[in-house]
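Lab notes, practical 5.
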Amino acid sequence: MDRISELPDELLVKILMSVPTKVALSTSILSKRWEYLWMWLPKLEYLHRDHCSEPGCKRLQSFLDRNLPLHRAPVIETFRLESCSSHFKPENISMWVSTAVSHCLRELDILHDDTEPAKSNILPSNLFTCESLVILKLVGEILLDVPRVVSLPSLKTLKLQSVRYFDEETLQWLLSNCPILEDLEVDLRDYDDESAGKLTVVVPSLQSLSLYIPYCQDIDGFVIETPNLKYFKLMDHSISDHYCLIEKMPCLIEAYLEVKLPDMKSIIGSITSVKRLAICSEAIMMLGEGFVFNQLEHLEVCFCTLFSSDRVIELLLKASSNLKRLDFSFMDHHVPQGEPEERDIVVYILKHALHLKTATIKSSESSAVPKFEMLEELALSPRASATCQLMFD
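Output from the prediction step:
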């Protein structure tokens, strides 16, 4: 017998944990000593690249049907499944997940790529009462139909990307039964025939929220009530008329807004305590005056329209009395551009920023204004701050 095989089972399992699941499974043919060691693995990952063909999917399905119920690990830390097309039957996936849940599952990650709309539920009912589950990630053609009995007392991270919801109450019913949820990411489906209706996110414990509403998503509106939120990312590209109601976020540290709603007051009013903000200039112009960011220290502005850049900067500087850092970039549909307007903004800031210490200008190779020419013009521009140093990167 080789010296590695003489090691205790615990060490051998740790060795197997350091390699992909597919490799770990292949060690079962080495000898009787290795035949069942993989069944103690606490981390199981069955990835798309390992079984992308139809024969490969059938072999994996047969293997899991036969062996997963015999798994010996008392705790499954991670169960990750990437399925392609419709090669896996919904009832099989449901059985595998149910088996993993019975082993005190801590993380479930499913990517279900199917060409047909999700009609069958691949998520077993015991998943929604799993007391050990900490992380849940669902991506693709997955029907989220939450049963009436739900209790996820340990869930802290939830990611839902392009899944289908049974109805507009499904998401909030799930969220209301996750008492310590901290991190939530919701990406709605693009080009969906069905309207998302009303999206509601009311989670007192939530600290991070990322919400993406695609261009062609038909949505009535969304309601957000997350009083302890620290990080907020909202990308609302929908062209449909919809409302937004957002309660104040007094604990907010960082926010990223890519929004073009006619009425921005609810959104801006909810994030006035933010310390770091990234926002498009169009959103500022739609808002107008009257907003104040008393705690804002770092501001990033994307000029992606033909709005007056001087006016945008003026509004932002007036609203942000404690600002320490200002980053801005010119984009055309969020593709970097090099235009003379960049120089005009810098000139405006130099002229009006009384306490500015350092101004660093970065110019791309595609800039319409040569670096030396821009530097020469800016060096001769009047500065409100006598101590301001101009640097060109």
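Observations recorded by the TA: DSSP finds ten helices and 19 strands in the chain. The mean pLDDT is 82.
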